[in-house]
Amino acid sequence: MIQVLNLLLGGVFHAAALFLVAAGLQLVFGVQKILNLACGSFYALGAYAGITAVKAALAAGVPAPLFVVVLLAAGVALGVLGPPIERLLRTIYDRDEAFQLLLTFALVLMLEDVMRFVWGAAPYQLGGVYLLYGQVRFGAVSIPVYNFVVIAAGLAIAVGMGVLLTRSRFGAIVRATAENRGMAQALGVNMTRVSSRVFTLGLVLGTVGGALVIPAGAAVNEMGIELIVEAFAVVVIGGLGSMRGAVVGSLIVGVLKAVAIAVYPEAEMLAVYVIVIAVLLLRPAGLFARATA
Amino acid sequence: MIGRVVLAGVLVTAAAVPWLGRDYYATLMLPFFAYSVALLGLNLMFGTAGLLSFGHALFLAVGGYTAAYLGNTLRVRSLEVMLATAMVVAVLVALPVGWLCVRYVRIYFGMLTLAFGMLFYSFLYKFYALTGGDEGIPVARPTLLGHGFVELDKTGYLVGPYYYYSLAVCVLAAIAMWRIVGSPLGLSLRAIRENADKAAYVGVRVRRYRFYAFVIAAVFGAAGGVLLVVPTGLAAPTLAYWTHSGNLVFMLLLGGFGHFFGPVLGAFVFIFLQDQVMSVTEYWRFVFGVVLAAIVIFLPQGLMSLLTRTVDA
Amino acid sequence: MRTTRRDFLKISGATAVASAIARLHTTPAFAQAGPVKIGVLAAKAGVTAPVGESGLRGTQWAVDRINAAGGILGRKIELVVEEESNPKDTVERFRKLVLQAKVDVVTGVISTGVGLAIGPAAEEEKRLLLMWDGTTQKGVEETIPKPRYAFRSVDNEAEAVMASILTARHFKGKIKTVAGINNDYSYGRDNWAAFLAIMKKHGMNVTSVAELWPKLGETNFTSHVATLQQAKPDLIFCSFWSGDAPILLKQAHAAGLTAGTKLVMTTAGGVHEQLKKAFAPEGMILGYNSLYFEDPKASALSKEFTRWHQEKFKEWPNYESDHGYFTVVAYKAAVEKAAKAGGGKWPTVEQVAEALEGIEVESLSGKRGYRADHIMEATYFQGLSTHKNKHDFVTLDSVEAMSTKQIQKPSGMGLYDWINSWNV
Asked: According to the model, what pLDDT value does residue A115 have?
């Protein structure tokens, strides 16, 4: 029983990490109809910058247990990149979606080399920081408390996004814009400001996600490019533009992959795609798709 | 008229390249021919029908692996047989994939095609007994119209008979595509691109014609894939990776997707630009990202628009 | 005696001519031919990038030293570096090196797929190719059965063979169940298969309770660790060589897996500085391929390199530097050997290739060379890990050195036939 829970928890942990990549993607698409191929790159950027920030903080004497705060701060601080990148994307707003997709692909190429230039190609990690919060023991199984921190963070962000979108004024404007851009503009919504803020929020979701998850792993070259594939699977399953879809999609991918690893390890590499195709055959637009074509 | 003269000039120049004494640059023309064939198909899908595929490399891989399998495992060395078989296999693969993908449009189509491309990549990796896994399948030197040219070494073969064969295939592919674009199918596809609803209203079977475009593009892609793997001598899973598809779209956009010869120009510039930049800096991906961004923002009609503009002016 | 002006001119003229003639005889005759060009295909991006960087460092150090000592027969070496990426692009870069830059020899190459494309290309272009890495079973048996110009690295299962021998030695009678977690490609599969075969040969009587195949580039192993915990193996065998090795150890340690389970990491020594003491246990069999940076028996050459590497890059070197160093030095030695045999003329490509067969040179790991079948002979280092050092990462408690003569299958023999032929 413990083992099953342990397996499930592993799947949920992976789902939380996936959600953090996909949430930004969903938000930006839902509102601005831009499919941001660079969402994986933002996640990677958060990971690299988070590690640097924590190392600097620890060297400067910041007490070690506060490293989570440092990671969050690093992720949020990267938000300064939001407005200029959005400004770049805005130049082709009215064009065919294909151009936006290609511009984000150009971003992927640029960001990959920027990260390689700044941090080098060798794996970059935070050592034992992951274990600082200790472990929870269930018999023979230990689960690092930090895993729960990541899962909690994913949950908090999902809930937070939900609250933001449904309860706040900003959220109302965002949803209105997503539903009918022209009408929202006619009603006096400042498109420029909304676009900039939404994109920045989407970027920060990615960078914070990358920063939060990285203590459990290591930042490696081209991790942004690798992540896109699973992020896309999540989004296709959950439905483009839906935050709920991102949550459910991540859970499905995370848990089913964990099950595949436990039950039929040879299928690990293919598991994600099988899930995608199965969902598509059953529900072509994804599980929580919007009415957009 | 000017267009015809330019075209003739380009063909003559292309035919003359092997004689200019720079073997390396002559070998670089080979992926150019291969990509041109594949891009003619991609251009049909995107430039004409408005479907942007981010998984077209799948069909290049299909072509490449078919050629490799025929030559290495079945010991069939004829390039004609390889091309024909690759095109048939491409149709077989495109039928289910296309059926599933054309139910979607625009962004969804792009995402789905990306997913399928990566699925094929994983398949190539996993089923290593059949595909060689990460080691790939070697591609034997094919015979051209029955001739083995065994007296030539690989470079001589590539820069000589294989070069002209590739050029011929490229020209034939262009002629075939020209016919398709000018046919009722091509016109319908253009109508669909302009306004799918209106086209449907007028009686055009939108989804079916998109499907045809997909399958035709797959066939051209596979033919290009066959030509692509012969100089390398190996068919490897990286052929199907999504960034390879991204590069194809890059080439398409660089040249100009509205124009018939746009993608050909795009392939040429991409290949030679990549060659020059790679030797200068290891951060060539950054340079390419900047180039792509610049094209998308400032020159969305591609380089071809510059040329036609100068001609008109 | 009075020296007339005419005499003076005659004498100084004669002296001038004499010294000019003398200078002609001592000038290396080849210096006028220009530099020797060595092309290098080094990975710059992706998961192999750190390995490519390491190989390039060893190459650069070798070239700098050789040039400082006068070059190869008086000709300085010029490096022409191109990027190793995927097979198609790398073959094109190879052609550029050979046809455009007209290099005399090409070194580099780490990835298996790329090696399988470049090897035949080198044979076709009749150009010397000294590969750093990437040799697989298939590569050795199939693509070029009798290479003339292509020289390959050590078989990729050698690390697993050595680790398996050490496993049998240290853990015989102590393990009943094993589990494997290896990357899902030829290297991972070949290593795991070799391990199982050797366990059987040594009569270890172990059963495999889990076989996991994460793809190369995977960065999250929580599910894998959970599965391994459920399977409860006595020993876990892992052939990770890149960033995934420290990640797996970190997550395994956090879950309590490393405490009770024996570990064998065949190649993680390549990323040894990433294996922090905080999560890497003591007593695991850890492989460093052909370079262990703190080998007490290291040669003066090796120590000098290690010192230089640490000062310049603030990092300790790994095995690929040795591969990079060796290929350059072997080439030089072969050219000199062939030139001597050919009466002092600069040798042809074929003559150098022949001279390389059976050659032995001093590399960063000791004596190293090529067999007649163009496969490398080298020394590999593995041992049990320890925390007793002055670093923040694990090192080896005692270093075991084995030659490829013990851990690499001999020419003409299949791996499993060779394993079966052992006297255990």
From this structure: 96
- For chain A, the domain total comes to 1
CATH number at residue C252: 3.40.50.2300
Low-confidence ranges of chain B (pLDDT < 70): 105, 309-313
Q: Do C99 and B24 touch (CB under 8 A)?
A: yes
- Separation of CA A49 from chain center: 15
Among A14, A116, A140, select the one facing C229 at the smallest CB separation: A140
Helix, strand, coil content of chain B in percent (nearest 5):
80, 5, 20
**Residues C172 and C282 reside in one and the same domain:** yes
Alpha carbons within 13 angstroms on the beta-carbon side of residue B309 total 8
Which residues of chain A have a CB within 8 Å of the CB of B290? Answer: 106, 110
Residue C20 lies in a domain: no
CB contact under 8 A, C116 and B27: no
Distance from CA of B80 to the nearest CA of C (A): 22
Structurally, chain C folds into a number of domains equal to 2
Best mutation target among A6, A112, A148, A272 (most C Cβ atoms within 10 Å) is A6
Query: What is the helix (H) or strand (E) element at residue C286, kind and residue range?
Result: strand C285-287
Q: Are the C-beta atoms of residues C144 and C125 closer than 8 Å to each other?
A: no
Q: Judge whether C7 lies within some domain.
A: no
CB contact under 8 A, C220 and A121: no
| Containing structural domain, residue A246 | 2-282
Beta-bridge mates of residue A138:
A141
- Domain interval for residue C234: 158-289+379-420
Question: How many angstroms separate the CA of residue B286 from the nearest CA in chain A?
Answer: 4
Domains of chain B by residue range: 26-239
Q: How many angstroms separate the CA of residue A110 from the nearest CA in chain C?
A: 13
**Cα–Cα dist C136/C147, whole Å:** 15
* pLDDT tens for each residue of chain A, 293 residues long: 778 888 899 999 999 989 988 999 988 888 888 889 999 999 999 999 999 999 999 999 999 889 999 999 999 999 999 999 999 998 888 787 788 888 999 999 999 999 999 999 999 999 888 989 988 988 778 889 999 999 999 999 999 988 988 888 888 888 888 788 788 888 888 888 888 999 999 999 999 999 999 999 999 999 988 888 888 889 888 888 788 889 999 999 999 999 999 998 888 878 888 888 787 777 767 777 754 43
A-chain residues within 8 Å CB-CB of B108? 236, 240, 285
* CATH classification of the domain holding A139: 1.10.3470
Chain B positions touching A293 (Cβ under 8 A) are: 105-106
ipTM above 0.90, yes or no: yes
User: Does residue A291 form part of some domain?
Assistant: no
Rounded distance between C-alpha atoms, residue A221 and residue C279, angstroms: 22
One domain for residues C399 and C258: yes
Distance from A141 to chain B by nearest Cα, in Å? 32
